[in-house]
Design goal:
- With 108 residues, this protein is an all-alpha fold.
- The protein is built from 4 helices and no strands.
- It has a domain at 72-108.
- The chain has helices at 2-20, 36-55, 62-68, 74-107.
- The longest helix has 34 residues, at 74-107.
- It starts with a helix and ends with a helix.
- The model has no long low-confidence stretch (mean pLDDT 80).
Amino acid sequence: MTLLLILIIIALVAYYYYRSKGLIAPNSTSDNPHLAPKFAEIQQINQTLASFLKHELGGQDLKELRTKLNGKTLDEILEENETWENQVDTLTRAKRELEAEVVSLTNA
């Protein structure tokens, strides 16, 4: 009886040691039914993100996308886009003013 108890304690210590080192996977969703819905939700989100990366952004993974974006973040890209939009608006207004001035000069 004592020998059996010692063996069980040694087995538990070994189990927790290997689990802490990552050699044994922690409890899977089959061991814990409460985690199954969350796990399925995370898998769906990952598939959606992977599909978005492939089809919408034209990249197979994040590393490839970072290379295509020259290391810029989304905020930097949006700020640059806003700057370009402001410049286009300014130039469009200037063009219209010049066109109106040309029309007024030709009519005078």
